[in-house]
Structure formats: C-alpha cells, structure tokens
User: Which sequence fits this backbone?
C-alpha cells in the first residue's frame, strides 16, 4: 500500500519504520488521550511495543482484515499528527467496518482530523467495497461528534457503558455512514 494525500496532509499506511515516530506521538499526547481512550501500560509508549503493533497492523492490512493510517502535515512529513483505523472489515453479507481516529492535542481546531478522515473514507470506499461504516464517540467528546457529523455520519443511538475509559465504562454515541454508491 502506498501513501496518498489530501490538500494539506500526507496519509501513510502502517509501516514498522514509523515505530519511533508513533511512540513519540502517543507519549506527547498521553495526558490528553487518557480522557478519551483506554488506559495503556507504560510499555505501550515504547518504540519496541509500537514496532510490534505496526507489524500486526501490516499483517491485518495484507489480509484485508483491518486498515491503519497515520497522517502528517506536508510541511512536516516526519511527525505523526493523527491516526485512523478501519477495524473488522467484514465481507458479505455485511460489507462493513468500524472507524476510529485520534488527533494530536496541539493540532486540534484546524480541520486536520476531518480532512484526513474524509480522505481515508474516500480511499476505503473506492478500494475495499464497503457499504457501511460504524463509529463511536464518547457522549462527552463533542469535538469527535462534530467530526463524524461533518463527515456525513448519522447518530443512531447510545451504547451504555460500552468502553472502559479512565477505569470506568463510559457511554458512547453510535454513528453510521452508508455508502450510497455501493
């Protein structure tokens, strides 16, 4: 798989060569992400752990089981500013996937996340024959909800106590995106 571009961003699929940059990304955003993502052990923030994780991601991508992308500003092509995943790519009769993303705390408010997500969604719809994309956003994460809504996702309901964040199961809104051109 090759990298692709949006107006301001470079989007790259998983590659073990990005392990150091990914460890740096998660380390510098650790205190911020703890509000919205599961708690990870200290080893998660090491390049060795990220290298092994990237190896697994690459295997999943080769098998079209899941897809993982990392995005960078064109003017800073070595610093990861966000991640995007499409997990559990399901074949017929579902043709669906679960969408997730995050963005560097210091990069928020510039439209980078929406831009990268749109480019990745278009890429997946054009290359993987997906009919439906599911997503979740914590009920208190209004920024994430706005990203999904700008991308055309429709709020479908609430998953009560669905994901453990900060040691407590949190409610999440569920969203769906339908590929009308399927």
Assistant:
């Amino acid at each position: 798989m090759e990298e692709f571009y949006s107006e301001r961003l470079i989007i790259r699929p998983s590659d073990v060569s990005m392990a150091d940059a990914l460890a740096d990304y998660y380390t510098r955003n650790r205190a911020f992400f703890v509000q919205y993502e599961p708690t990870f052990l200290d080893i998660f923030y090491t390049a060795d752990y990220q290298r092994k994780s990237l190896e697994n991601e690459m295997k999943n991508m080769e098998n079209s089981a899941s897809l993982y992308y990392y995005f960078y500003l064109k003017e800073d092509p070595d610093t990861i500013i966000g991640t995007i995943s499409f997990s559990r790519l399901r074949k017929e009769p579902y043709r669906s996937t679960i969408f997730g993303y995050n963005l560097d705390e210091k990069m928020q408010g510039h439209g980078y996340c929406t831009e990268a997500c749109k480019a990745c969604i278009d890429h997946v719809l054009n290359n993987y024959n997906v009919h439906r994309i599911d997503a979740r956003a914590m009920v208190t994460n209004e920024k994430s909800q706005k990203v999904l809504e700008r991308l055309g996702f429709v709020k479908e309901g609430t998953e009560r106590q669905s994901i453990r964040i900060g040691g407590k199961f949190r409610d999440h809104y569920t969203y769906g995106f339908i590929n009308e051109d399927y």
Q: What stands out?
A: The chain has a mean pLDDT of 97. Helices lie at 19-28, 30-33, 47-62, 112-128, 142-150. The two ends are 23 Å apart (CA to CA).
